[in-house]
Amino acid sequence: MTSNHKLEMDVEAHRDMKLLEAVEQDSRVTQRGLATKLGIALGLTNIYLRRLVRKGFIKCVNVQSNRISYLITPRGIAEKARLTYEFMDYSLHLYGDVRQRLRAVLQECAAADRRVAIYGRGEAAEIAYLSLKECGLEPVGVFDDEAGDDFLGMPVRPIREHADLAYDLMIVATLVPSEDLVIRLVAQGVAREKLLPLRQDVPAGRKPSAEIANSSGVLHG
User: Fold this and answer.
1) Is the pTM here over 0.70, yes or no?
2) Helix-helix angle 31-38:42-54, to 10 degrees
């Protein structure tokens, strides 16, 4: 099994776990409600649900003549428990790998007095922030798609304002495959060579994180 295939399996398992959790939490949940809750398209929700129905993990219930809800089955409860354990184990290994990679890069940044920004404000951003602090660094700024609530006491700036701030490296703080996000950030004018995804699932030709820290032309503003 290739690493890319393993990444796809991880994403699929996580999605199934979230769907099963949502169905278990609300016995009256509808397909549209699931799409909204999980932040995915209604058409994709339909495909994913049909797959889980075929596997016997959930069942359709006719609530009204024009409305269908979904219920988790005993088999689905067992599958959710298995996926939850698998995801927890996977997450622990992923967090450890991310912290190790970040530490190596950020130690180089600290030694060279590089300026590091963070894109994102969720759990992955907290990991990035903690790693920065461990290396004696403070993020020069925190960005997201739009400005919003403070992140650990720091203002969150919209990514369109990135050019107003001097930084040498921007950590792409997400633990899901991030190449699409990297493409969006580049479209916003962020130099691709300044981006450091937490995940290593980057296409061929992209420099690994360790090389980013060692490349003399990459981290300069």
Assistant:
1) no
2) 110
